[in-house]
Write a structure and sequence with these properties.
The protein has about 400 residues and is mainly α. It has 16 helices and no strands. α4 packs parallel to α8 and α4 packs across α12.
Length: about 400
């Protein structure tokens, strides 16, 4: 039977990116307050606000789902127009590495200068960064190549990220490589290969829940995080290629995935299970919301969120160390009550992040955006913004 939908575009995904990056910024902006055991407990409306803020890291699983959808659209367009592996990987490298390397250089310089000027105390808790000069050659290679989450597992040494929040990029690069290999080896069975990989990763993730002492595989895509990415792939396949029967099967499986993840979280309160539950719930919600995508995308608030969602990579790259230092500085200066943090620290940190992100996008990132694909697709997949505690 014919697919239920034919358009690959999902316009409001950029707005969801905007929501996700704001959640992450809020989480980092309140880092000093959240990490301080002596902080005053919020009450009233502030209590509800902090219930959301302290879970702002859940914006990261949302980004993985969005990334799964967007890279599926990119790969699908590439395979249908006959594009090759060179085109695929050159677009990925151009999109990710130049802005990241420039941001890495800026962050390294900022850390060195801050420490030299006696501001090391700003980095102690809010951004647990070491002196970059103390990193080994292997660690620097891991940072530059975005392999530092899994490189130490192979070399037996200690891993360290200068940009601590770049851990998600290390996963993104693995996701892109897996998709590229699937495109190379099974162009006509691209989605089948990805679903098969997810089927292999699933029992590994379940086994780890009951045997946490198993061989360390944290940092590799098969440690369970591939399932979040795969959720976005499923959404793309559901709205683009699924037959009526396949769509019904996907809907049932999505509901089961959400229920299992929620049950697992309620059983052990593991943040990783909470992240999976949110990712699966978000992916499940994207399916029916697609029906109103074009209509909702014209809303002014949605367009504003989409504007920043399209620049979320720049916001992500530079916001974490800056917001962490500002949060700590304001906390030490006396801005410590729940209301003060909400009314002063969060607006200041958000405004700085937006300003710096916009400037970086204008000066750097926009110069490395790829030209649009020949087949309509969402804004080309940027790496998933993230944060240190994910």
């Amino acid at each position: 039977m014919a697919a239920l939908q034919r358009s690959a575009r999902y316009l409001t995904l950029d707005a969801w990116r905007g929501v996700a990056i704001l959640l992450v910024i809020f989480y980092h902006a309140a880092s000093f307050y959240l990490e301080n055991p002596a902080s005053e407990k919020p009450t009233g409306a502030a209590r509800l606000a902090y219930a959301i803020i302290r879970r702002g890291w859940l914006g990261v699983p949302m980004f993985f789902v969005i990334s799964g959808y967007c890279i599926s659209a990119t790969c699908d367009a590439t395979r249908r127009r006959g594009g090759g592996m060179r085109e695929y990987f050159s677009r990925r490298i151009r999109r990710i590495y130049p802005p990241y390397l420039i941001a890495l250089a800026i962050t390294t310089a900022a850390v060195v200068v801050t420490s030299a000027l006696g501001g090391g105390w700003l980095l102690e808790r809010s951004y647990k960064v070491l002196n970059p000069a103390s990193l080994s050659v292997a660690q620097w290679i891991g940072n530059v190549t975005l392999t530092e989450t899994w490189r130490p597992r192979l070399m037996g040494d200690k891993g360290y990220l200068v940009m601590l929040h770049a851990w998600s990029l290390c996963y993104e690069e693995q996701f892109y490589i897996v998709c590229g290999l699937a495109l190379l080896l099974a162009r006509r069975r691209f989605f089948g290969v990805l679903f098969a990989i997810a089927a292999v990763v699933l029992p590994i993730a379940v086994y780890r829940q009951f045997h946490p002492g198993m061989v360390r595989i944290d940092g590799f895509f098969f440690d369970g995080r591939f399932l979040l990415f795969a959720a976005g792939v499923v959404v793309y396949y559901r709205v683009r290629h699924a037959t009526i029967t396949q769509a019904r099967i996907i809907d049932v499986m999505a509901a089961i995935a959400v229920a299992v993840a929620v049950f697992a979280y309620r059983r052990d309160h593991d943040p990783g299970n909470l992240g999976k539950a949110v990712a699966f719930l978000f992916a499940t919600a994207l399916i029916p919301l697609y029906r109103w995508d074009e209509r909702v995308a014209d809303n002014l608030a949605v367009r504003l969120l989409a504007f920043w969602g399209q620049r979320c990579y720049s916001l992500y790259l530079l916001h974490a160390p800056m917001v962490g230092m500002v949060s700590r500085a304001m906390g030490v200066a006396g801005v410590q009550s729940p209301v003060q943090v909400l009314l002063i620290t969060l607006p200041v940190c958000t405004a700085l992040s937006v300003l710096v992100g916009w400037v970086f996008h204008w000066l750097v990132e926009r110069r490395f955006l790829n030209p649009p694909a020949l087949v309509a697709a969402p804004v080309e997949a940027a790496p998933a913004p993230s944060m240190a505690a994910g």
